[in-house]
């Protein structure tokens, strides 16, 4: 059974940086495209950034370009989300997702991802 566990969330101030981690167990991490989404209660999950299984390609939401980065450590079965210059509107639950890699470019669509973590809360105060 594939399990994803996010960590690293918390309460920060506007302008701060934060790095989230997602540890994957029970599957073959190196073949998974990995992605980060975020969700506010009552709203749809919003794509943030993704990285291909090969690590050679990433995709990010247009609104996040330049502020977020994703990386993976296949030896540690872990994917990371680096967020810089945080703003109050970044406040959300951040969820990690995985899917079998199928193309060179990872998907930005939530319904393409097979496995999900429970999320970690990020709260940004002004």
Any descriptors?
globular; 126 residues; 0% helix; single chain; mainly beta; 11 strands
Largest sheet properties: 7 strands, mixed
In N-to-C order, the SSE pattern is: EEEEEEEEEEE
Low-confidence stretches: none
Number of helices: 0
Rounded to an integer in angstroms, the radius of gyration calculated over CA atoms is 13 Å
The count of strands amounts to 11
Proportion of residues in extended strands: over 45%
Q: Overall pLDDT, averaged?
A: 93
Would you kindly provide a written description of the structure presented here, covering whatever features stand out?
The chain is mostly beta strands and 126 residues long. The protein has strands at residues 3-7, 10-13, 18-25, 32-39, 46-51, 58-60, 68-73, 78-83, 92-100, 115-116, 120-125. Strand 4 (32-39) and strand 5 form a beta hairpin.
